[in-house]
Amino acid sequence: MNAGTLVKLDGPFTDANANPVSVSAANPRPASGGTDRQTIAQIEALAPESIRVLNRTVSREDFEINARRLPEVARALMLTSNEDAGIAENTGVLFVVPRSGGSPSQSLKDAVRDQVTVVYPSTRAGILAALGDFFAVSLANGTPNPNIDFGFNVKDARATRPGRSPSRTSSTPFAT
User: Fold this and answer.
1) CA torsion sign, 123 to 124 to 126 to 130?
2) Is residue 107 in some structural domain?
3) Domain membership of residue 119 as a residue range
4) From its phi and psi, is residue 159 left (phi > 0), alpha (psi between -120 and 50) or beta?
5) What pairs with residue 20 in β-bridges?
């Protein structure tokens, strides 16, 4: 919005006692930092994606969708080791095409980085930490992790099958 173009405020305004009041506003400087309202076409394209991604960035598709949520991004493509053997496992390269064409500016790169790491953060680190704790075969002190069940336990290895008492088992492991 250019400077001096804000001349009308829509709607009736009242004070705390419901008395009508007159309100005026002016913009002596041009507006900056905002984005235009989304078009119907943009809403139709982004609405299904926003339901699919919700509020996180985890998968390759999440990175692409969340990057495209920025109005300045026309297209986004995330490559991982599945698409390019030169990319390390559990990493990726996110390519973006600006709506204005050409190469993305540093400010657009920064905005995309913030979009996929701050606005829609990855939950992967928290999940991996929790899974690492849960799936560790032994605890830090060396004792077996009680959360692990590989379908057998020490009693099985000593010929005590699940559901059978030790008195009914043979001295040969897994004998019937």
Assistant:
1) positive
2) yes
3) 55-126
4) left
5) 14
